[in-house]
Amino acid sequence: MKLDKVDRKLLRRLNEDGRATHQQLGDEIGRSPTSIARRQRALEEAGIIRGYSADLDLARLGYGARVQIRMSLASQSREQLDTFEQAVAASPSVIQCELMSGSDDYFVTVLVRSLDHFAEVYREELARLPGVVRMETSFVLREVVEPRLPPAWAEGAV
Description:
This protein is of the alpha+beta class. It folds into two domains: 50 residues, Arc Repressor Mutant, subunit A (Orthogonal Bundle), CATH 1.10.10; 75 residues, Alpha-Beta Plaits (2-Layer Sandwich), CATH 3.30.70. The protein contains five helices and four strands; from the N terminus they run αααβαββαβ. The chain has a four-stranded antiparallel β-sheet. Strand 2 and strand 3 form a beta hairpin. Helix 2 crosses helix 3. The two termini are 16 Å apart. The model has no long low-confidence stretch (mean pLDDT 92).
């Protein structure tokens, strides 16, 4: 699906506020609510919009610490990678895992309530992941920039 300038504006706005009404979106983008609804449905059907979710304050839910862990495996064989990925996907504290290039094989993010909770997650989940030979842990002190689309993207420059 080829995206035009209107599609890009619509995606940027939905990324900012997934609950915006078709009327609100139409007013901001300069299109009718019907046109916006049709475009949004097409973007959903194309798989570009995968879903909608709430932006939760995880600290208020008791998860005040995010931990990022760089992991290296003993081998990068397909079997080792598959085995690790299945195990990490089953780890309840892992909220994100990315296969990386460079000196680290994976970048894993976990949410914990406290340092004591992290020690428990480390013992019960992370240390049991298959094939891991090195872990380097960092604690997120403060999020400076939240995930977002680059400014030029909405204009089609990217």
